[in-house]
Amino acid sequence: MKFTKMQGIGNDYVYINCFEETVKDPSAVARFVSDRHFGIGSDGLILIRPSQVADCEMDMYNLDGSQGAMCGNGIRCVAKYVFDHGIVNKTSISIATKSGIKYVDLTVKDGKASLIRVNMGSPILQATQIPVVADTEQVIDAPIQVDGQEYHYTAVSMGNPHAIVYVEDTDSLDLAKIGPSFENHVNFPDRINTEFVQVLDKHTVKMRVWERGSGETLACGTGACAVAVASILNGHVSPDTPVTVKLLGGDLQIFWNRSENLVYMTGPAVTVFDGQIDLSFLGE
Ligand SMILES: N[C@@H](CCC[C@H](N)C(=O)O)C(=O)O
């Protein structure tokens, strides 16, 4: 099976062009290819499929084989893939996802897509829709007990669920310990992605993420959008200008247009290498 490894600020996935290839069991393929020792090495698997309703479809799977409804870093790479491979010959592209159709604009350099802006849609703040268990309609700066310690979190869905926790210093966190405790907390019936955020100034925040189904990754695009929304709701950053979100793998620019109630994410997408792998032992 042919594949392409791509990354968006270090959040790396194995991409399979399902205009040409067929994947029978994406969860099993995701678990195998993601393994950094026995597989290709990635945070998960993304299938690029034909779509009846958009220019193409993104179907994403985490490292543990679970399906994600949206992937911010992944969707920039999907847009780059379909443009660079001549599958879609325009710089404004629509991509169907499990959380609806997203619209993407590309900047082209030397014939290849480079900087990519995605209309990520409207943030979801209703606790029942995220979903989080809460006795209020929205969860903004609410207390939560995790591993016997009290934290405060804000809950936002960008098509997938995020808990945003503000901390003094992201560098000193033991994410491998607290990440799984947030992910599997009883308040989060579908598990959750958790962003730990340090506010740097009125326009800039720094974050580390523990992703549902993949563990700590170098970046999360939907997470960065959720962090920008939460940071505005909590009064940490200016609501009128884009927020620079600094992640371990690089920066994303996020703008929540409050009059449209739409979140825009701008960042790069990079092809790492193409390859071919024998997955016949998985029945593929
Ligand atoms: N890394 C992604 C999000 C991937 C899905 C997430 N782990 C989930 O299960 O919701 C991004 O860039 O948004």
What does this structure look like?
With 284 residues, the protein is an alpha+beta fold. The chain has helices at residues 26-34, 72-84, 175-183, 221-233; strands at residues 2-8, 11-17, 44-49, 56-62, 67-68, 92-97, 100-109, 112-119, 142-146, 149-157, 161-166, 193-201, 204-211, 215-217, 243-247, 250-257, 262-268, 270-276. The protein has two domains: 2-118 and 268-278, Diaminopimelate Epimerase, Chain A, domain 1, CATH 3.10.310; 127-260, Diaminopimelate Epimerase, Chain A, domain 1 (Roll), CATH 3.10.310.10. The protein has an 18-stranded mixed sheet that branches. The mean pLDDT is 98. The site of the ligand N[C@@H](CCC[C@H](N)C(=O)O)C(=O)O has 18 residues, from α2 and α4. It is an enzyme of class 5 (isomerase). The active site is at 71, 71 (proton donor), 220 (proton acceptor). Substrate binds at residues 11, 62, 72-73, 160, 193, 211-212, 221-222. It catalyses: (2S,6S)-2,6-diaminopimelate = meso-2,6-diaminopimelate.
CATH topology type of the largest domain: Diaminopimelate Epimerase, Chain A, domain 1
Pick out the low-confidence regions.
none
- What class would the helix/strand composition place it in? alpha+beta
CATH architecture of the largest domain: Roll
CATH level 4 superfamily of the largest domain = Diaminopimelate Epimerase, Chain A, domain 1
The number of helical elements comes to: 4
Subunit structure: Homodimer.
Pathway: Amino-acid biosynthesis; L-lysine biosynthesis via DAP pathway; DL-2,6-diaminopimelate from LL-2,6-diaminopimelate: step 1/1
Enzyme class: isomerase
Function: Catalyzes the stereoinversion of LL-2,6-diaminopimelate (L,L-DAP) to meso-diaminopimelate (meso-DAP), a precursor of L-lysine and an essential component of the bacterial peptidoglycan.
